[in-house]
Write a structure and sequence with these properties.
This protein has 148 residues and is mostly helical. It has one domain. The two termini are 13 Å apart.
């Protein structure tokens, strides 16, 4: 029960965070770029945004890398005790850490002027969410099997 309630609560937080990302970026590469680099040059913009300061970028990257690393450490630890294919298990355990670095390192690089990294940010973010959702579904299904 502890693991089940933890996973449900964690998922509530994770998917609320995704909603926040959607509200700020519309889940588009242009939205990601405008969120971090501003859109002062766009006279037709509905909402005026300004480039994030270095302090804001450092804070965002730091907070997200630390918290998401702990989220995926917990999920990976739980996945270790599941009875799924070992190759799938390894992928689900390792992939999130690569995507965390690519997503938030990519945000930093994009903010620093490497604009094409917005594509890496969006792809790694999507992969991170797919991995999270797959891990959660597997864990919850394994838990349900235990209660039968």
């Amino acid at each position: 029960m502890l693991v089940g309630f933890f996973i449900v609560t964690l998922s509530f937080g994770y998917y609320t965070g995704l909603r926040f990302v959607n509200e700020n970026t519309n889940n588009t590469t242009q939205g990601i770029e405008e969120h971090y680099l501003g859109n002062e040059d766009n006279e037709d913009a509905e909402v005026m945004r300004f480039k994030k300061s270095e302090k804001e970028i450092i804070t965002t990257v730091h907070n997200h890398v630390i918290s998401m690393s702990l989220i995926f450490l917990a999920l990976g630890g739980i996945l270790l005790i599941t009875s799924i294919n070992p190759v799938l298990k390894k992928c689900l355990i390792v992939e999130p850490f690569i995507s965390i670095i690519l997503t938030f390192g990519g945000i930093w690089l994009m903010w620093s002027g490497v604009l094409w990294f917005k594509y890496i940010v969006i792809c790694s973010g999507i992969l991170l969410t797919i991995t999270y959702t797959t891990s959660v579904v597997i864990i919850l299904l394994q838990l349900l099997k235990q209660f039968k």
